[in-house]
Amino acid sequence: MIVHKFGGTSIGSAERFARVADIILDHHGQGDGAGVPGGVVVVSAMSGVTDQLIAGARAASEGRDTAYRKIKADLLSRHLDVVETLLDKRRERLKVGGLIEDRLHDLELLYRSIAVLGELTARGRDAVSSFGEQLSVHILAAVLRERDARSRAISSTELIVTNDYFGAAAPLMDPTRRRLQQRVKPLVEQGVLPVITGYIGATEDGLTTTLGRGGSDFSAAVIGTGLDADEVWIWSDVDGILTADPNIVPQARTLTELSYSEASELAYVGAEVLHPKTIRPVTQRSIPLRIVNSFNPAHAGTLIVESPSADREVLPAIISTTSLSMIVVGSEDDSWTLHMAARALHELSEAGVEVLMLSQSLSEHNLNLVVRDKDQDHCLRILSREFRNGHENDVVRLGAEEKVSTVSAVGPPGWNGKRNGIAAQAFSALGECETRVIAVAQAATERSVSFCIPEDQLAGTVRFLHRKLGLEDGDQPNPPRGQCKTEANL
Length: 490
Ligand code: ASP
Ligand code: MG
Fold this sequence. Notes:
The protein contains 14 helices and 16 strands. The protein is α/β, with parallel strands linked by helices. Strand 5 (200-202) and strand 6 form a beta hairpin.
């Protein structure tokens, strides 16, 4: 049995949903109930939907009624459009369309109660964030049924039991496994193709939780492990994990085989195609994981296993993340304290704002925080409320400084036959490239180093580093110095 997970971009439109149905049915998605192994599908929300849901909840908590109503209306028309386009049978169209309307009506009620309370709790945020997957599963299952597969949408709130750490809940493997074995396994054995929501779970008491942003990969791994799947396939929109972002470096190469720990390191520094928590569950039962491309299903992608084959090519990789913002919070004088830094981080964590990198220099009285662009305004509001309202003693400097990106160099131990890890090479390459480094974070294992740099230097830096790490064919790389000053001189 294979667990196939499809992310938001793979189901971003009616056309994409149809492609996904083709892929599932081509890849032994449906068993015959008599020996041919079946599959299980795990699916995210349509691209951008979870962001919109959360933006609506924030708007509701700030009393911006028109904003959340518009979000609800947009979500309704986007999902109904897909249903209209894809489902031919009137009965299915009415059933799925009606279900979507009902769910989004519930969403509006939830938004309204958040608006009345004027407060968004972590629990409320999870309840809101869970709606996207609860819509997409029904659409995909219906599309599969129209193609004569016996498919059924299932909410993972009935399957994945978690603790109550809202926003990043941890699955409890024993009860989860029991439910998967009792409820999902028999369906697969009967030749039914379950389509399960990614990203969400519920506590023992039935409160909806989420496993963290991008958590559908993690859900697929938990489901695969609980069902003793043969493999878990993560379908994304690139040919596996690559040596660099192919949009920046067209020559980037696919890492064909990785060990669990190598893949985990890449995921933790931000490899978009794999949620960092995905590896741990599959390790328990040594289940192979594949990263494959739903836009290019013929490509073998990246295989992640306990012990990769001895003759595989071992390569370093560059992981970059863009659309980030650098926020500075501090004092004009030396009144900034560690306690104030702790308050800032606490408030952001409570508000569900993920801080990707942070630094505090000894000489500057402030904290630098790297957050996603889309969280920037919310982050500033939270910090302003904490430090500027009613705390006259906090003379706080607060602002979004600039657009930044992060770039990480990751190298498995000994990949270059040298004693020092990849950090030394990365530092020297960035120096040579004249990249302005704003902050640095290094793994103590020396397997990876991450830099925060100005956004307009990202592409140049990544290309330079890719060549310097010997990842391109041809002569030993020796690109000109200082070429990474700005995007303009590339
Ligand atoms: N829909 C969720 C998110 O956007 C989970 C996922 O895409 O994996 O974070
Ligand atoms: Mg993802």
